[in-house]
Amino acid sequence: MSMIAGFSLTDRARVTELGTWVEATGPDGRRGGALRFDSRAVAVPGASERLVQAVLADRRLTDGGVSGLVPIADLVTAGPEVWLLVGHSISPVLSDLLTAPAMDPASAAAVLVETAQTLVALHAAGLAHGSLHPGTVLIADDGAALLAERGLADAVRGLPPAPERDVTAWAALARGLAATWASTSPSAADLLERVAATATTHGLAPARDALLAGRDALPGGLISRDVLAGTARRWATPSTPGMSPVRDEGEIVTMLRVPGPTHESARFGPGVAAPGTHGSPGAHGFPGAQGSSSTHASPGAHGSSSTHGSYGTHGETTAEKIWREGNKPAVLSSHGTRAKKAARARRRRTVVSSAVFALIVAGAVLAWFSVRSPADLVVQSVTVSAPKTLGCRKTATITGNLVTNGSGGSVTFQWLRSDQKEPIEQTETIPSGKTTHSVQLRWTVKGEATAKLTARLRILSPVPEGQKVEDKATFTYKC
């Protein structure tokens, strides 16, 4: 079985612009994933340091309450290779499901609300995704939309964050879902087209709010994850372990670990290696790759692994600076006044950032309650079909196709025939996980005549409050 830093790789993989994603099982037995970067991408000068910065920024966002990103476990080197390890399955992505027949407008709206919410949080933090498209939107087992590869494409290319590109990409995503998942509902497709235009002219937050406010245009007025969750769970079929040889864990070096001070470093001064330590530099010059220890060593662990550095002074890497600035209080220098002012400024920025993230989290909670669909079954719409003509003493099969929110339960309905006054009332049970269900009426016509006959199907319950859900079909009897 092929492994990388405790992640067991399977035979399921997909290629992206950055490299190859491989489905994996994490050390805790849960589904995860590993991205092996294309060697040409990480060979660009400064790319490895920028990747470290992007990954650490993601971790800070996650710690701050942003939940719409794929959780990152580690960024490691394995010889000449660079791997990103994530604590979440890497499939299905939105591009896998665009042509899936079961998808519906409620699912499209749920994806758009949640991706907009995450992008708003990124932009508030001064960051951007940089490569938003159906291949970087992951559908989790509970139907949530998570963004993958956040900032990685910009990192390898050396591009600054560009929120406007995210807005354009989100608008294109909305239009794509309008043409696919919402194609059966003109009013839903029109709503998604309108919010795409709103995003382009006014921004993502107004577009998200317009989508939530306009949900009445969706079938049943629902924004639901139910179909997404069911599809994602069905997608999670067991994978076969890869057949490559076991990778030597001794080669694995995390790019994110910042070594803590040891007894020797305290004695000989910061940045000075103790006599007798090895003098080879970190593997391939990647920041944080200061030795050959396993990735299982925790940041700042004392004495759990050897520390390899140049004998004498070595400069602090970008990763170390980021880690230390984000995790240690400011130390006053001899320029006391200036240091105090800088510390106060940092505290003000921290307070402002905390307030911003509090608002973001509050918005996410409101969006979640808006997206959550009711647990009870709801019939959103119905269409009735019948044969065009019927001959002497024949039986017509009238079919009613119900569209639901995917929950299970009982449906009560009536068939009304134009040749009789009393309706035919029936009840059927629908299993959960299905968004369509068919019911039938068999109508036998006798006698010699030519007549137009109509069958009407009326759903009595459960239906959206205040709405009438019914349809009819007409056929000609000739005898």
How would you describe this protein?
It is a single chain. The chain has 479 residues and is of the alpha+beta class. It folds into three domains: 1-91 and 236-328, 2-Layer Sandwich (Phosphorylase Kinase, domain 1); 92-234 and 331-373, Transferase(Phosphotransferase), domain 1; 379-478, Immunoglobulins (Immunoglobulin-like). Helix content is 33%, strand content 24%. It has helices at residues 39-42, 47-63, 94-97, 105-124, 152-157, 163-179, 186-202, 204-213, 226-235, 263-268, 318-327, 336-371, and strands spanning 3-4, 7-15, 19-25, 31-37, 72-78, 81-86, 137-139, 145-147, 252-254, 379-385, 389-390, 395-404, 409-417, 424-430, 436-444, 450-461, 469-478. A seven-stranded antiparallel β-sheet has the order 1-2-3-4-6-5-9. A five-stranded mixed β-sheet has the order 11-17-16-13-14, with no helix packed on it. Strands 10-12-15 form a three-stranded antiparallel β-sheet, with no helix packed on it. A hairpin with a 2-residue loop joins β5 and β6. The longest helix is centred in the C-terminal third of the chain and has 36 residues, at 336-371.
